[in-house]
């Protein structure tokens, strides 16, 4: 009989048991690893118990397994998956898969199961915020009443406001420097939450609502493009194609043919839906990948440039400097 986990804590513990990871307490975090098989990777867990957790995962699945869950908790989870995918089935919904991308989801009362494949490698960073952090800590200390109803529960938004991605990258840099102290951790969590609140309260037409609803896009003084549900699915497919082919992305014309959407509507709709043009999205994703490689590998600047899609290292350095106000080498030396 399959065991059913009933909380996020039980879910993590069940995954760790399958991975044969044991906790090794460090100064600012807990390292989860299989001491007998360190080549299988690890997970770093930064936590304020009862309130939130920040995890950085980089591990390989040693054998296939499934977990069933029935979790009444309400949680906010968001982050970025750089590599890896899983299949999951929520009750009364079709089987879905989670692939590399940014994500945001408010979970409540979820039931279903999730499956992992042997040899699949996972690399990503995730923040989990428990309801008590919002209803107790933020309400009591900042007089904040967060409106959960501004989001669709148990629906994964496949995109985060750019500012949150930047904060998560900073948290990983601090972790690599062993400098992500409880104070830094708290400040980053608060800043992420401030961006989420500002995003949804500034306008009903925001980064999150645009990911679930379609409408019309203004492309001139009195000219609009109307987006159908089919158009939105094509735009989401374009996002997936670009994410999976960042080293050599298709041209706008080729992309429009792949997703069956004319180039004008694709460009306008993508900018509307993801709050940035396709070119800027590609650059943003390349720079995020470059930062991750600078922080986690010893690859040369030229090798990193090639991996993120720049055949000429000079062009990569120029764009990196424009984005981060320093060269890739200077960025790498900051963490030393």
DSSP strand tally: 12
**Under CATH, the topology of the largest domain is which?**
Jelly Rolls
The CATH superfamily of the largest domain bears the name Jelly Rolls
Query: So what's the CATH class of the largest domain?
Result: Mainly Beta
Gross CATH architecture of the largest domain: Sandwich
- The fraction of residues in strands falls at 25-35%
Number of helices: 11
Query: What kind of assembly state do the chains in view correspond to?
Result: single chain
Order of helices and strands: EHEEEEEEEEEHHHEEHHHHHHH
Low-confidence blocks of residues: none
Category from helices, strands and their pairing: alpha+beta
Overall outline? globular
Helix fraction bin: 40-55%
Count the domains. 3
Mind describing the biggest β-sheet?
A: 10 strands, mixed
Our measurement of the CA-to-CA distance between the termini, rounded to an integer number of angstroms, reads 50 Å
Question: What Rg, in angstroms, do the CA atoms define?
Answer: 21 Å
Task: Give the integer mean of the pLDDT values.
Answer: 89
Topology:
Blueprint: E1 4-5, H1 8-19, E2 22-25, E3 30-33, E4 41-48, E5 52-60, E6 65-83, E7 86-90, E8 96-98, E9 101-116, E10 121-130, H2 131-142, H3 162-176, H4 182-202, E11 216-218, E12 224-226, H5 229-244, H6 252-259, H7 263-274, H8 278-296, H9 301-307, H10 313-324, H11 328-334
Parallel strand pairs: 1-6
Antiparallel strand pairs: 2-3, 3-4, 4-5, 5-10, 6-9, 6-10, 7-8, 7-9, 11-12
Helix pairs in contact: 3-4, 3-8, 5-6, 5-7, 8-11
């Amino acid at each position: 009989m399959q065991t059913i986990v009933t909380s996020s804590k039980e879910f993590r513990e069940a995954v760790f048991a399958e991975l044969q990871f044991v906790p090794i307490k460090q100064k600012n975090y807990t390292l989860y690893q299989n001491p007998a098989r360190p080549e299988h990777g690890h997970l770093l867990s930064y936590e304020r118990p009862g309130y939130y957790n920040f995890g950085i995962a980089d591990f390989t699945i040693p054998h296939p397994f499934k977990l069933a869950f029935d979790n009444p908790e309400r949680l906010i989870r968001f982050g970025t998956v750089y590599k890896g995918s899983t299949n999951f089935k929520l009750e009364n919904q079709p089987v879905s898969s989670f692939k590399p991308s940014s994500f945001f989801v408010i979970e409540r009362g979820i039931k279903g199961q999730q499956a992992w494949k042997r040899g699949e490698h996972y690399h990503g960073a995730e923040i989990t915020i428990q309801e008590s952090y919002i209803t107790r800590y933020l309400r009591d200390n900042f007089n904040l009443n967060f409106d959960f109803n501004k989001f669709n529960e148990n629906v994964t938004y496949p995109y985060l406001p750019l500012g949150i991605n930047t904060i998560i990258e900073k948290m990983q840099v601090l972790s690599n420097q062993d400098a992500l102290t409880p104070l830094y951790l708290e400040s980053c969590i608060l800043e992420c939450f401030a961006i989420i609140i500002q995003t949804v309260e500034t306008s009903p037409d925001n980064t999150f609502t645009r990911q679930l609803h379609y409408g019309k896009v203004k492309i001139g003084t009195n000219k609009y493009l109307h987006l159908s549900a089919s158009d939105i699915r094509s735009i989401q497919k374009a996002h997936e194609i670009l994410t999976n082919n960042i080293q050599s992305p298709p041209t706008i014309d080729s992309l429009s043919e792949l997703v069956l959407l004319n180039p004008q509507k694709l460009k306008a709709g993508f900018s509307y839906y993801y709050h940035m043009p396709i070119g800027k999205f590609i650059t943003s994703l390349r720079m995020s990948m470059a930062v991750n490689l600078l922080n986690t590998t010893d690859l040369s600047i030229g090798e990193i440039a090639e991996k993120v899609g720049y055949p000429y290292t000079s062009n990569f350095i120029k764009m990196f400097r424009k984005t981060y106000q320093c060269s890739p080498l200077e960025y790498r030396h900051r963490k030393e």
